[in-house]
Amino acid sequence: MTCLTGIRVLDLSRVFSGPWATQMLADFGADVIKVERPGLGDDVRYQGPRARDAQGQETRETSSFLSMNRGKRSITVDLTQPAGQALIRQLAQDSDVVIENFKAGHLRRFGLDYESLQSLNPRLVYCSISGFGQSGPYAHLPGYDPLFQSMSGLMSVTGQADGAPGGGPVRVGYSVSDITAGFYAANAIQAALLHRERISGQGQYIDLALLDAQVAAMSHVAMMYLLTGQQPQRLGNVSPITCPWQSFRCLDGEVVIAVGNDPQFVAFCQVLGLPHLSSDPRFLTNPLRVKHREVLIPLLAQRMAERSMQAWYDDCEQAGVPCGPINDFEHVFADPQIQHRQLRMQLPHPTIGELPQVANPIHFSATPVRYDRAPPLLGQHTEEVLRERLGLDEARIADLRREKVI
Length: 406
What we know:
Elements: E1 8-11, H1 17-27, E2 31-36, E3 50-52, E4 58-62, H2 63-66, E5 72-76, H3 82-93, E6 97-100, H4 114-120, E7 125-130, H5 145-151, H6 176-200, E8 205-209, H7 210-217, H8 219-228, E9 245-250, E10 253-258, H9 262-272, H10 286-291, H11 293-304, H12 309-319, E11 323-325, H13 329-334, H14 336-340, E12 344-349, E13 353-358, H15 382-390, H16 394-402
Parallel strand pairs: 1-2, 1-6, 2-5, 6-7, 7-8
Antiparallel strand pairs: 3-4, 9-10, 10-11, 12-13
C-alpha cells in the first residue's frame, strides 16, 4: 500500500508544471492516466537531449519528458473531436482528480471545464494551472518560466550586484516557477482530497497561477520588502541577512560557508586561525557582521585562499561549521551522501533499457514511494486503459483509431 493507493488521476497537463505535480502523485501511489495528442504528444517529448538505448542508438525519448512523467500511463486522445471529448468525460466520471494547464478557459469550448465535469462527478477535484490564473487582466495571456522569474521579483534579487563584474539580473538555472507551481499543485490536490474524504464528501476547483506561486515562493525575501519598503539587494552568492553566508575561493576551487549563528562564527574563526575576529565588537552578532560585511569578508577571504577546498572542508566538518563544495552533476551523483540516500535510481524502459532517474526525496516509514512504471511511450497504454476503465471492445477501439480519435 502507498499513500494514494486507489486514487485515480486524469492528467490533461503538459510541459512542466502539471506533469511535475502528477509525477509526485504517481510516486505516492495514484493511478495517473496521461492524455496526449495523437501522433504528437506532450511538447516536452521534443525538448532536451534524446536518450540512447543499450546499443547506443538514439531513441525518441527526451530528457525533459523523462524527468517528470514516470509512473503514468499514456493514452492518446484528440480533444478537438466530439468522440475524443466523450472519452475524457467518461474517464472523468470515475476519476478522483483532473489536472490541466491550458490557457484560462481553453477547455470550456470542449465541455471539459470544471463545471461540465463536476456535473458528472461531484466528488471530482479539478486543478487548473495557468500562467496568470483564471481571472485578472493577464488571465488571457500565455506565459513561460522566464516571464514568471522576471515578474515575480526573483530575477531582481538573483545575480551579481550592479557595478560588479557580470552584474545585473540573472535567471535561475532551471524552470523554477514551473516546478514550484507543481509542488503547490500536488499539495493543493491532496488537501482537497482530504477535505472531500473527511469533511464535505464533495470535490472542488483549484485555480493555481505560476506567477502567484513564484511570488509566494519569494517568502522571506518578499517579506523583507513588505516590512521595510526597501528593495532587497542583489549580492550574487552572498546572503543579505546572514554573514558569513557565501562562497569563498580556495587554492583549487570554491566552497560555500554558511554560518548560521554566533557559536558557529566562533568555531569558524578558530578553524581559520583568526580567533580574535570572534571577539571583535564589530562582529559579535549576526546583525553586526552583516553591517560590517565589507570589513569582515576580505579578512576571511584572504585566509580561505591559502588552503585547499578539502583542507577547509575537513576542518569545518570537525568543528561543526556548515561547509560544502559547489558541485557539478558528476560530483553531485558521486557524493557519498547522495548515494546513501539513493537519489539516483534505475527503471527498466521499453526502448532505452535501464533508465537513470532522480528519485523522489521523500522517505515514508509505512508507505514507501512507488516506482512501478518508467515514463511511458506515446500512447503506450491507450488500448489498455480504454478496455479497463471504459469497457470498450476491440471493434470499438479499432473504430476510434480509424477515425483518428485515438
